[in-house]
Amino acid sequence: MSKRLPKMLYADSKGNIFDHPELCMAGMNGTVAVLPDEVELIPLPEDSKLFTMPSMPPISWDARKKTFTTVNEVRDGRRTQRVQAVAAFMAPGYLRTLLPACVYSGKKTHLPLWSYTAVGWDEERDCFVVAATKVDNNRNWNPGNYDDRTLDPLVRRMLREMPDNRLLEQLSRCAVDYHCFAAKNLFYRRWEAPLPTSPVCNSACLGCISLQPSECCPSNHDRIAFVPTPEELCEIAVPHLEQAEQAIVSYGQGCEGDPILQADTIAEATRRMKKATSCGTVNFNSNGSLPDRIQLLCDVGMDSFRFSMNSVREELYNRYYRPKGYVFADVLRSVDIAKQNGRFTMINYLVSPGVSDAPAEVDALLRFVADSGIDMIQLRNLSIDPDYYNREMGVAGQGIGMYQLLQRLKQEFPRLQFGYYNRTKENFFPEGFETGWPVKE
Ligand code: SF4
Ligand code: SF4
Questions:
Q1: Among residues 403, 412, 410, which one has the least CA distance to residue 433?
Q2: Averaged over 163-176, what is the pLDDT?
Q3: Among 11, 31, 73, 78, which is 20 to 30 Å from 348 by CA?
Q4: How far is the CA of 126 from the centre of ligand 1 (A)?
Q5: Which residues of 371-402 are buried (b: 16+ CB within 10 A; e: fewer)?
Q6: What is the DSSP letter of 205?
Q7: What phi and psi values does residue 312 have, to the nearest 5 degrees?
């Protein structure tokens, strides 16, 4: 078995990355070092990045001694140098199955808001490998499709066409300064485009990418500072719905607050969009905290809903979302309302090995899927310091394995779809989706 195991990676103090000549790659599930299964070792996806884990020595598998071992130093010729662990940040579309194996207690600050994945070097395949599985084969989001040289003239032209639209001005910054792919799609007039609406939120997620207290890690983006009018929303969305290939417009795309707090504006805008055109898909991503607002949005013709949660257990949900003025039962009620109204209903499941595959979570998730009848789980690697998250969630031990979790779900719910991205309404139930995982490269 050990012969096939990839080699452990380590980095020197300058960030140069090496593969160890003898010691093997390990991963971590929760707080426990484990060996990756062969089935979960896949080549590092294109457009992924490698990170060093500052002040965190790697944990490796010593195949000779058959034990896990912490590697503080590595001998290089006559020199011995202190080393740190290496992690991968994968391109989207892949679910991480193991965290990087390292001694997190050496860490001096919170790691920035990325998702950290176990990575090693496979000598036989001559490539980096990660502990992961592909869950979506939509290639639209490949970075190669987003070339800024072709973008700039399109941004300038659209700004000239709609000089008074504050939302368009915001989205031009999102596209050009934040390099948001969704915002770029709007200017390319294709695929899924965002409609940010909300400067505020009624959750205070530990890993919110749009708002972080200053003493913690910096958030990646600033929230939109105003609520656009239905006119501004429609001026942008209607041409996109009518003309874009595979058109989706989505409220609640990540770095705003939660659009549910602007439901009246969104309902009015969506009503007008649906009156203006039957083309395209209108989607609502939200924390789902206000069920009566979901009913309102169903009534005006919203096509699909995606509700975010890190856990289907109230206690863990509360620890992460820190809800203000709503309770987890409201989120469950929102899911039910969307489904009962016949809308394509997804959850945005923010996953982390050790939390999402903990036996109690697996049982609760199976019950939740059975009770709600949701159509799809979007499997999103939670972008947060894994050690901080494990501590906040009270993790002490390991789960059943992320790959095993997906297998259980597929066994019990063959019609439940896995994925990573939102879908057009024509593609809600694609042919062959019952067996759509594992996704072929
Ligand atoms: S608010 Fe965030 S997700 Fe939305 S368009 Fe701007 S950068 Fe993209
Ligand atoms: S629900 Fe979304 S916007 Fe609100 S705090 Fe959580 S991540 Fe941030």
A1: 410
A2: 95
A3: 31
A4: 37
A5: ebebbbbbbbbbbbbbbbbbebbebeebbbbb
A6: -
A7: -95, 10
The tens digit of pLDDT for each residue in 258-287 reads 999 999 999 999 999 999 999 999 999 999
Calpha distance 321→316 (Å, rounded): 9
Q: Is 139-435 assigned to CATH 3.40.50.300?
A: no
Give CA–CA dist 27/11, Å, rounded.
Answer: 16
Query: Ligand 1 within 6 A of 254 CB?
Result: yes
What pLDDT is stored for residue 218 in this prediction? 43
- Strand segments, DSSP code E, in 234-312 are 245-251, 281-286, 304-309
Mean pLDDT along residues 350-362: 98
- Token digits of residue 70: 């912490």
Please report the sign of the dihedral spanned by the C-alpha atoms of residue 381, residue 384, residue 385, residue 389: negative
The residues near 211 (Cβ < 8 Å, ≥ 6 apart) are 201, 204, 219, 223, 257
Structure tokens at 294: 């979901």
Both tokens assigned to 26: 């390990």
Contact 255 CB / ligand 1 (< 6 Å)? yes
- The residue whose CA is least distant from atom 6 of ligand 1 is 174
Quote the CA–CA distance of 286 and 342 in Å, as a whole number.
Answer: 18
Question: pLDDT by residue (tens digit) across 223-255?
Answer: 789 999 999 999 999 999 999 999 999 999 877
Give the mutation target among 223, 287, 350, 383 for probing the ligand 2 site: most ligand atoms within 8 A of CB: 287
* Ligand 2 atom index nearest CA of 223: 3
Determine contact, residues 348/285, Cβ cutoff 8 Å: yes
Please state the domain extents for the chain.
Answer: 2-134, 139-435
CB of 90 closer than 8 Å to CB of 99: no
Residue 61, number of CB atoms within 10 A of its CB:
25
Beta carbon of 180 within 6 Å of any ligand 1 atom? yes
Q: Does the pLDDT value for residue 1 go beyond 50?
A: no
Supply angle C-alpha 279, 282, 286, rounded to 5. 175
Say if ligand 2 is within 6 A of residue 208 CB: yes
